[in-house]
Amino acid sequence: MISAPGGPDVLTWQEVPDPVPGPGEVVVDVAASAVNRADLLQRQGFYPPPEGASEIPGLECSGVISEIGSGVDGLRIGDEVTALLAGGGYAERVAVPWQQVMPAPTALVDAASLPEVACTVWANVFMSARLRKGETLLIHGGASGIGTMAIQLAKAFGSRVIVTAGSAEKVARCLELGADEGINYREEDFSTRRADVILDIIGAKYLKQNVDALNTGGRLVVIGLQGGGVGELDLGKLLGKRGSVMAAGLRSRPADEKGVICRGVAENVWPLVSAGAIKPVIHARIPMEHAAEAHRLLERGDHVGKILLVS
């Protein structure tokens, strides 16, 4: 739980009532969850959960279904699953709409590293930006959880991948995962490259450079605002390139919309995970009750891939 907005130490491990599945929900006994930047913002008081969602942090989990509410088909008690959550993952049990539940495509604990990043990349890069075989994808934050998934998934679908990262070591890890080119953004300007799709976690700070880097017909997808939320957009340049800018979040979408994304992930991404073509990239596995330590680790920014919280 979050006792009050603040630093990692406001995270406390408390006894709370067990969740009860409502209509269209299942309860998952959590094997593991994962830490995302949204959790840090929520802890600081800047990103409250959507109306009706759990106040407990945690946007994804893996585990075993232990209860099923009315109106749920195709899921059974005992199923090993992953789930995309609006909150509640930092717990022993969580209730989740059935549409947001997917089969676990790999070892159960490691599967907790996948739902948020896979759904984010699938929804934005493939559903919205329509990345095609042979096109170039530029990924900012290539060593992040989203970045490491985007590299592998884009390569699996036949695209060329360029990444930015903040150190030579992180660039090297991205290249090991399959990226065709890596740019240390502390030393080099990425806007001299050209891309058909750009996946951006920075926002305003990179807006001008992103538009410069777009190919004709290019698509910029903004999914984070680490560099600010207000920037100046050169519409003339965008018009000349016949480009587009889109921005999208995941957490606040309704369950049915998330369900469409989850079905796409289960059908198109999970077979690649099960076959070993896409691998979970896990930096650390930390006991759930030490979530504050995991938050500090994420805030330091030295990690590559995901940080798991294990029950």
Span between N and C termini? Answer: 15 Å
Elements, N to C (H/E): EHEEEEHHEHEHEEHEHEHHEHE
Could you list the spans in which at least 5 consecutive residues all have pLDDT below 50? none
CATH topology of the largest domain: Quinone Oxidoreductase, Chain A, domain 1
Overall, the morphology is globular
SS-derived structural category: alpha/beta
Protein name: NAD(P)H quinone oxidoreductase
Pfam families: ADH_N (PF08240), ADH_zinc_N (PF00107)
Keywords: NADP, Oxidoreductase
GO molecular function, one term: NADPH binding
What does this structure look like?
The chain has 311 residues and is α/β, with parallel strands linked by helices. The chain has 2 domains: 8-114 and 251-310, Medium-chain alcohol dehydrogenases, catalytic domain (Quinone Oxidoreductase, Chain A, domain 1), CATH 3.90.180.10; 118-247, Rossmann fold (3-Layer(aba) Sandwich), CATH 3.40.50. The chain is built from 10 helices and 13 strands. The strands form 2 sheets. Strands 1, 2, 3, 4, 5, 12 and 13 form a 7-stranded mixed β-sheet that branches. α3 packs across α4 (145-156). The longest helix has 14 residues, at 115-128. It is globular. The mean pLDDT is 97.
